[in-house]
Write a structure and sequence with these properties.
single chain; 229 residues; mainly alpha; 2 domains; 0% strand
């Protein structure tokens, strides 16, 4: 593939992805309860089918761009955190919730993997389940888990959490609780869905994602190293 055709294909992939994202966002606003992430993925598949564009070619040109942007997007989550009003927040309770979520988010899936007699590599990959992709892949690299499997587990768990979140929150009225739960359980995917609920939910989701990722990145490698030794 020449430079010109590669450049054009990359622009087309970016445009297709953005159109799918914007369309999904519009649909999510008109149809309450429709998960934006799932809708965007379905739209990308539909667009590729209509355009007769092979998925492997699309993935080849789109992956380097969005992989590069993923780290920047994660860092940009500091912006909504800076806008949060921490005055009067129950810091001790929030800290307790995040710590418990970090521990359960790693140990529970690892325990289930052990219960079903899965391989050690699979068990280690499940330790990254509750954190966003850049952090999760870094943890996977440190503990020797397969990167591809860790990536798959993170994405699938995020999609499931973001999809089921709104169904589980039907009787929950506090946007802070919704956002924090989505950020802790479904990381980046949950944070996207939280922003569709309200800016307050989005900020708390970003808080849960960031703090949980930081804690998990610290204790999981130490825990795994001690466990293996």
């Amino acid at each position: 593939m020449s430079f010109d055709s590669l450049f054009i294909a990359t622009l087309a992939a970016i445009a297709l992805t953005l159109v799918a994202h914007v369309s999904a966002r519009i649909l999510a606003k008109k149809l309450s309860g429709l998960p934006m992430i799932i809708t965007a993925i379905v739209l990308v598949i539909v667009f590729l089918f209509v355009l007769q564009w092979d998925y492997e070619n699309y993935y080849f040109v789109a992956k380097p761009v969005f992989d590069h942007l993923l780290g920047y997007v994660t860092v940009l989550l500091a912006i909504p955190l800076a806008a949060m009003n921490f005055k009067g927040l129950p810091i001790k309770r929030l800290t307790f919730i995040v710590v418990i979520a970090s521990i359960i988010g790693a140990l529970l899936p690892m325990g289930l993997a052990y219960l079903f007699a899965l391989s050690q590599e699979t068990l280690l990959a499940f330790a990254t389940r509750s954190v966003t992709t850049p952090i999760g892949l870094s943890i996977a690299d440190l503990i020797g888990a397969p990167l591809a499997m860790a990536n798959l587990i993170i994405i699938v768990s995020g999609l499931m959490g973001a999809t089921l979140g709104r169904l589980l929150f039907r009787r929950v009225s506090d946007d802070r609780a919704k956002g924090l739960a989505l950020g802790l359980a479904a990381h980046a995917f949950g944070t996207v869905e939280a922003w569709q609920i309200s800016p307050t939910a989005g900020r708390y989701a970003a808080f849960g994602l960031a703090v949980n990722g930081l804690l998990t990145a610290v204790w999981v490698p130490v825990f795994i190293s001690a466990l293996i030794i």
